[in-house]
């Protein structure tokens, strides 16, 4: 696997570090880059950042986890159901509904 390819750990590690940036715009852009990477390390980084201080970053994370459709994301989506932001809660509910409907999961 070459550098920068989907699932490439060398591409993900700098993004994981950047995800912790104080800038909301940088955080949101990093979430989308991690989603595009699609590897397990990228998904784990998104799951671990579900409690980011920025509503925009949390919303991007939840939307991304819903689009990735990876079962490991269910825990983070359930956490987001009690987020202080209604936008994050709504996105989490929609993503969990998608999982339940399309993957045949019993929630």
What does this structure look like?
By secondary structure, this protein is mainly alpha-helical. Mean pLDDT is 86; it is low at 1-6. The chain is globular. Helix 2 runs parallel beside helix 4, helix 4 packs parallel to helix 6 and helix 5 (74-80) runs antiparallel to helix 6. It has helices spanning 9-18, 24-37, 40-48, 55-68, 74-80, 86-103. The protein is built from six helices and no strands. It starts with 8 loop residues before the first helix and ends with a helix. Helices cover 67% and strands 0% of the residues. It has one domain: Leucine-rich Repeat Variant (Alpha Horseshoe), CATH 1.25.10.10. The longest helix is centred in the C-terminal third of the chain and has 18 residues, at 86-103.
